[in-house]
Amino acid sequence: SKVAAFACSVASVAVLTLSASAAKLDVNKDNYDLKDGVVNIVATKVELSLEDLKAANYEVDYDFDIQGNTGFGPSGMKLVYPSTLTRVKVDDEIAVLGAVGDKLDPYITENANDEKDGKTPNVSSGSTKLKNVTIDGTLFTTRFKLPETAKAGDTFEMKVMVDKFLDADNHAVAYNALDGYIKIIGETTAAT
Description:
six-stranded mixed sheet, globular
């Protein structure tokens, strides 16, 4: 897989494989309200047990996907995550590109939580590529560390924000932004 890292407007590309230390689970892609005839921009819905999370040192690899792709090129999308999560770099990279990312060749940026300037933590993907990409799959995978205070029943909401979504001729492309989450499943205990 290619990895794109963005710094000072210069994109660098390297080969990277995610290490096995983070939880990476199969995600049921049928669990979404996908719409026909539009590009579905999907923040995945990940559910895992507290035991699996602890075994992975509270780290989760998280996919940002494109489904039902009718074709797009120049774009700007964000995966907005809760400030209680920490983005973890893998081999100094922000994200690993998936099949869609390999074709789109985007730049990936990170906006960490900085309360003094009011920025929302997010991982952004942008592209100025003037050729339409028409395949479905993962745009990028990024890694998060969940708080060690996480417990069964906790849900960490992931939001999709779209700045621009165009085809190669700079026409707007219809899209459906689908938010996701990381949810810890299992028995919850009532406070006593």
